[in-house]
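Researcher: Please translate sequence to structure tokens.
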Amino acid sequence: MDSAVVLAIARSEGFGCEALSFDYGQRHRYELDSARRVADSLGARGHTLLPIDMRAIGGSALTDDIEVPKDRSDIGEVIPVTYVPARNTVFLSYALALAEVKGAWDIFIGVNALDYSGYPDCRPEYIEAFERMANMATKASVESDASLRIHSPLAQMRKVDIVRKGAELGVDFALTHSCYDPGAEGRSCGRCDACRLRLKGFDEAGMKDPLSYLA
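Model: Translation complete:
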């Protein structure tokens, strides 16, 4: 959901967008079909799907045989086992490479540091640090007076504000997928952190989530 809203924001600001998704061995693979549908619906110029085997590293309930926590009372207070080690660093590094090849100077990412699970690589200071590194690490930035920017427009937004912003920009939330542990047919569990935060956002916005839930 967050990535869909970020794509809509980038488009509304006049950017021509190349969507980037990762098949990294995640158990919630329905998000890949969802990403394709969202990219098409929001007019992305292209959609690159990159395979990365992060299951070979493991260490997360999203990539390993570890139970996804449900009904947590301490969301945002501790770093949960759904944290994927260095995932956003890996993702942003690939995005940086794609941007350099495409001649792009702007990368958008849907991280959030308010209503979130507590992942350290979603914090604004992390995004700022990566941006500084990116402008030292690429041929494009070294040889140009321009600076590459990492945009995280949702960083300081609550889920309710993200839902409202998406609705304002015409995001079809029925195309999105958020669940960490969906059922066999892709229905969201309704109990993992991602589902509970998403449902909280829709509830506070006074809107009905169009997805179907198991619980």
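Researcher: Any highlights?
Model: The radius of gyration is 17 Å.
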